[in-house]
Amino acid sequence: MTMTACKNCPLRQKSMFMPFTDEELRFMQSFKTGELKVDPGTTILMEGSNSPQLYTVLSGMGTRYKTLENGRRQVINFLFPGDFTGLQAGIMGEMKHSVEATTQMTLCAFRRDDLWTLFRQHPARAYDLTWIAAVEEHFLGETIASLGQRDAIQRIAWALVRIHERLKAAGLQKANRVPLPFRQQDLADALGLSLVHTNKTLKTLRSKGLAHWNDGVLELCDPPAMADLAMIDLERPQKRPLM
Amino acid sequence: MTMTACKNCPLRQKSMFMPFTDEELRFMQSFKTGELKVDPGTTILMEGSNSPQLYTVLSGMGTRYKTLENGRRQVINFLFPGDFTGLQAGIMGEMKHSVEATTQMTLCAFRRDDLWTLFRQHPARAYDLTWIAAVEEHFLGETIASLGQRDAIQRIAWALVRIHERLKAAGLQKANRVPLPFRQQDLADALGLSLVHTNKTLKTLRSKGLAHWNDGVLELCDPPAMADLAMIDLERPQKRPLM
DNA sequence: AAATCCTTTTGATCTATGTCACAGTTTAAT
DNA sequence: ATTAAACTGTGACATAGATCAAAAGGATTT
Predict the structure, then answer these.
(1) Domains of chain B: residue spans and CATH
(2) Nearest CA to A191 among A149, A233, A134, A137?
(3) pLDDT at residue B1 tops 70
(4) A149 vs B238: CB contact, 8 Å cut-off?
(5) Which uninterrupted H or E stretch holds A128?
(6) Is B141 on the interface with A (CB under 8 A)?
(7) Helix then strand then coil, % of chain B, to nearest 5
(8) Distance CA A90, CA A88 (A)
(9) What pTM does this model have?
(10) CA angle, A101 as apex, A100 and A107 as ends, to 5°?
(11) Residues at the strand C interface (Cβ < 7 Å)
(12) Which residues of chain A have pLDDT under 70?
């Protein structure tokens, strides 16, 4: 198994990502120190640990989550191809959450110690990194609004629409269908709902002909109705940088 | 009224902030383009707007919030002295939430257009900016965990402990007491609770002798018990950069 | 001083969602 | 093939917290 060269990165041409200049491509290639391939269930980054690596997801999916003292788990976000993770440890010195692979995953690895070099030598990429952090902050803010102000069916509709958008933008869509290989428990833990109620609410969405999520495949049958239910102003997909 | 010179900034020597070099101080002074003083209730940044300004809170307090289609409001975070805001608009081109002054506030204003100059000319400050974004991301993640996994009394305890920590670090503490000039409705909107239940839960905390929040002053009577109730591993206050 | 407005407080109900218990289903392990 | 383990699906019941209604306290205006 050989490592994917940045030049041949399957992600960089997707519509959602801003294009690279040749120079940036070379720089990223030098920044990339390796590739990590992990099996489902593998913990990639651990809460409290001080990882020397930062990662961009090349393929596969995972979860970022926190575990509370009482044993409950909060999934903070799902990890999809193109997502960048590990910045917290890279900058603050310690991961504040864990990252786990749900499927097999391939990740581009960068050295934490090179981060400072990046800021000094390539301000445009540093700016992009901050951009990515700002996008994530926006998403987390929206998640907070969902957990705080939406009821169960709205929350699930919101999550499915957002997930669908993300995966679509990452080029994984076929006719309103995207792969979504998580368990219902993962979604429940992401939305602060019980597994039972999540299951029943998914059933409601199914019976209303709005969304089907079975066998690891999510189909949004009526995206506008879903967006409406979720009280989402469907933002036209904005391009963002890829690390 | 004259503008506060960065050299005389009352915040920069607080224990929570990393010290400035003389050179950085000069740079920030040149980066600062003005000072904004607003009355309580003023909207400083508006969701959807494209503000040309970024701000650091010099004094006073405010809220960052989103309004949903159904009229409900989610307070995403409170704004305290030392907080930096507007990065989203600065980088993504549009605010994804609004910012409102709760008390009278004074803010240092920076020009959005200078942001790119900052990245090119002062990588250390750019790094700090990303650091601030990472800290915020961490906090929002913890908020998500609170809304998703803690019950009402734990949520309120969590919020009061975190708020107390922040204000203490900002040097506003006197004997376990900090100023907290928000309404119960603001806290309710931040935690996804109804006003009524927030009120009753605060009463419970009071009657247990754990925390008193009256007349705009928050007193944590038994911080360890509160932290315990909130399932918080009280992180020793980490220094973070100040913009 | 009266009136108005805003916030806090309290009690009485209602309901969305959690918890429990168990039955199918599928996949993996022996 | 059989058992075990993991996930999904469903009904019965319990409850934390929402909603409704209204009072009481302060502050501000007339």
Answers:
(1) 11-129 (2.60.120.10), 143-229 (1.10.10.10)
(2) A149
(3) no
(4) no
(5) helix A123-149
(6) yes
(7) 40, 25, 35
(8) 5
(9) 0.97
(10) 105
(11) A 151-153, 192-194, 196-198; B 183-185, 195-196, 199-200, 202-203, 214
(12) 1
